[in-house]
Amino acid sequence: MHAMTFRGPGQPSWEEVPDPQIEDSTDAIVRVDAVTICGTDLHILKGDVPEVTPGRILGHEAVGTVTEVGQGVRTRKVGDRVLISCISACGACRFCKEGRYGQCLGGGGWILGHLIDGTQAESVRVPFADMSTHPIPEDITDEQMLMLADILPTSHEVGVLSGQVRPGDVVVIVGAGPIGLAAIMTARLYSPGHIVVVDVVDSRLDAAAKLGADSTLNSGREDVRACIAQLTDDLGADVVMEAVGVPETFELSVDLVRPGGHVANIGVHGAPATLHLERIWIRDLTITTGLVDTNSTPTLIQLIRSGRLDPAPMITHRFDMSEFPRAYDVFARAGETGALKVLVSRTAPQ
């Protein structure tokens, strides 16, 4: 089969690799029908995730069809259409029993495209298939379901739930990439009073407005701190979500929150950021970080089925699998191309 592999910083490669095989009784082999690229994959290609070694197949988001199951798999069978979660879970360890699947001690957590071969391939081995896949309901499209592999549960859990968004809150989301846009959609479920989105790319700010942001700020042209102060009578935002992953945006997020407020860091950081405790200790701030657990995925599935969520409009570009290198190029140059999420499928886009 062919797969997108990591050959070192700045060196992705679409190449022929061996087909995956069942290694443990709880494994399933899934034919990948549609897959996407995550901002974390770009961090890997920059060398920000040193655990990813050359030769690793990239990717941790996909939908597909089960083609083989191990003897220990109980709830999945050949022919099932499934979502492959970005987080694998053994289901038996201390953290899995708490629903903190991202911290799985039994060989799970974020392993696909990280510690084991991932989903940007024609087929993938999925460990702990009973816990780490979700059946695709007939009334949900592959495109809708694919957005539940990572970005919607990540924004919902690490941003909205950890940030404790409440009705009436002023919420600022720094970064209008896919995670930031998903944070708009999931924050709206909790009736905030005002959502402000900050970015430097106008096309992404336009997308933020279409997905429900009440106002947008281009930090390349506007004084974001002054604008938020004016909006909040100099208090600052109740909740600020950092959805970029660079030191400047984290430090900006801390500056924008009110005393007693909450900064929820969603972005993946590849370099240290300064925490100015000498200035912020007296402000009673709460700062949270975290890896997604995907324990809210079943809830998000139901919200899509009920019509409360529709993440499919986030997909802006579609490619055939043979075009994977081009898909990476378009996604990496999102400021020029306007790409939000790209869809790579087994069949040529229509």
Looking at this protein, list some descriptive labels.
alpha/beta, seven-stranded mixed β-sheet, 13 helices
Describe it for me?
The chain has helices spanning 39-46, 94-97, 129-132, 142-146, 151-161, 178-187, 202-210, 224-231, 247-256, 277-280, 297-305, 324-332, 334-337; strands at residues 2-6, 12-16, 28-36, 56-57, 62-69, 81-84, 123-126, 133-135, 170-174, 194-199, 215-218, 237-242, 257-265, 286-288, 315-320, 341-345. α10 links the parallel β13 and β14 (286-288). The protein is globular. The chain has 13 helices and 16 strands. It is α/β, with parallel strands linked by helices. Strands 3, 5, 6, 7, 8, 15 and 16 form a seven-stranded mixed beta sheet that branches. The longest helix has 11 residues, at 151-161.
- Structural class from helices and strands? alpha/beta
User: What are the secondary-structure elements, in order, as H or E?
Assistant: EEEHEEEHEHEHHEHEHEHEHEHEHEHHE
Count of strand segments: 16
Q: Could you tell me the mean pLDDT?
A: 96
CA radius of gyration is: 20 Å
- The portion of residues forming beta strands comes to 15-25%
Tell me, briefly, the overall form.
globular
Give start-end ranges of low-pLDDT stretches: none
Approximately how much helix is present in the residues?
A: 25-40%
Note the gap between the termini: 24 Å
Number of helices: 13
Q: How is the main sheet built? A: 7 strands, mixed
